[in-house]
């Protein structure tokens, strides 16, 4: 444990930065938002999902972000705490609400989003409000791109990255593209790429690869066009087909798992949480192909399990649940 400012922090802490919100998920799949007879509220937000994915697997995680000082915000902070996530970096805004998203579940379990953020509390986090001691204690600092969309949160994001990097953290980036939140596709691409060359671990989905490269090919050439010299690991997730991996020395693919998919929400976050959990105290995974393939198989299992239930956080697996799926293969 490393003491910071009198607070004892775990030495293998994964700090996740960004948004946490409420997803409203239709009670019936395969209908539009207008046709949905009702909605279930589900805690969400990719960076928060990753933090809980880590603790569910027995790792140590903290979340840094801003919530509304409202019932939903307090509920979300409570969910983080119940799941063992360190909440010292969570702030509450009295003037803005917690973000909401209405999610359409299409018949195949895929999703469309409609967001209520004008502005929501997560967008109003300022650099001066950051818990820098907490960020400095991160062994891995993980983030997305939604926090880059508007000021002041963008500046807070850049400051947090800078502080984490200076303290020796591994930077992990999952752009988590949500086009409806950006002013335009061009702006989304530009801002997502503006911090690209700082991350050492990057995970993109097949759809994000197409969006960022402008190519409709999901192949090695397309993926490697996103490579940069600071990168240690680039991952392309392929849904039920598994994932592809690229490092300086080797590249390859790991098959996915066939499960009965109900809702894909949180599958990528579960995958990322599992990966970060396994590399936080063993960076050699990034240079050892056999080890990496084992870790990615585990991450694929975690992602697959998450698709078998509605909502992200309730569906995030434990280590033993993932091991059962791995044994069945």
Lay out the secondary structure.
Blueprint: E1 2-4, E2 7-9, E3 13-17, E4 21-26, E5 39-44, H1 46-56, E6 60-68, H2 71-82, E7 86-93, E8 100-105, E9 111-116, H3 132-136, E10 140-143, H4 153-166, E11 170-173, H5 185-194, E12 201-205, H6 206-213, H7 220-224, E13 233-237, E14 243-246, E15 251-254, H8 267-279, H9 289-306, H10 319-328
Structure keywords:
329 residues; alpha/beta; globular
How would you characterize this protein structure?
With 329 residues, this protein is of the alpha/beta class. The protein is 32% helix and 24% strand. It is built from 10 helices and 15 strands. A 9-stranded mixed β-sheet has the order 7-6-3-10-11-12-13-14-15, sandwiched between helices. Strands 5-4-8-9 form a 4-stranded mixed β-sheet. The radius of gyration is 18 Å and the shape is globular. The model has no long low-confidence stretch (mean pLDDT 94).
